[in-house]
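Hi team,

As requested, here is the filled-out complex form for the magnesium ion run. I kept the field names the same as last time so the parser does not choke. Let me know if anything looks off before we queue the next batch.

— J.
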Amino acid sequence: MTIRIKSRREIDAMRDACQINVEALRAVCAEIRPGITTAELDAVARRVFDKHGAEPAFLGYPPGSRYPYPAVITVSVNEELVHGIPGTRVIVEGDIVSIDCGTVYRGFVGDSAVTVGVGAISEEAKTLLRATEEALYKGIEASVARKRFGDVSHTIQDFVEAHGFNVVLEYGGHGVGRDMHEDPHIPNWGKAGSGRRIRPGMTFALEPMVMSGSPKTRVLDDHWTVVADDGKLCAHFEHTVAVTENGPEILTKWE
Ligand code: MG
Ligand code: MG
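And here is what came back:
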């Protein structure tokens, strides 16, 4: 396992990719409302990429696969956890909608995700969204030089479980930089004090994926969409983070 350390200049370049990613996410979120289809949301993100001459990191991923990802963003609704393929699905009032997006710009990748409620959502959904987003920020706070990746994973798991929810076991965060998925894999569960030591110049995506029911998942026939096996609500928040001597910097911050 090789964790690539980035220079100040490389982190600056990543920030540019990350901010285009944020612009795409924002534009998509502004359009989420009852009646819109998930394919229309995908088109919104595509326009932001085109405007900047940026490439969508998800489209065609992974290269050489039998089932390359066919869209720009992933849209995962309600019991869909991650990797929902945009299409004819119509968003309705009360849905919770996760948008994940990746940008390639001048050789670097930005990766972030957000989950939003559509109109009036249930109390349980509100609590789930809040706990998932807050778990992300707890994980980021723990991402300081000289701590270990296990400390980050453990912090996220602990926070989520304290709220009565479950983290997914099979999917997690990851190093990010010139490639969307670099070492290390960063599970949303783990043991404090375990794993590699965090160092300045490391850049990675943290992404709590939280399930209100059982953590058992399955993948739909489309080869991508990951759903909660019990059909209960799921949420997902993600930021790309750079570790500096002064602490973690969120490169995908919504300014
Ligand atoms: Mg992502
Ligand atoms: Mg990611």
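Two things worth flagging: The pocket of magnesium ion (ligand 2) is lined by residues 111, 174, 205, 207, 238 (CB under 6 Å). The chain has one domain: 8-250.

Thanks,
J.
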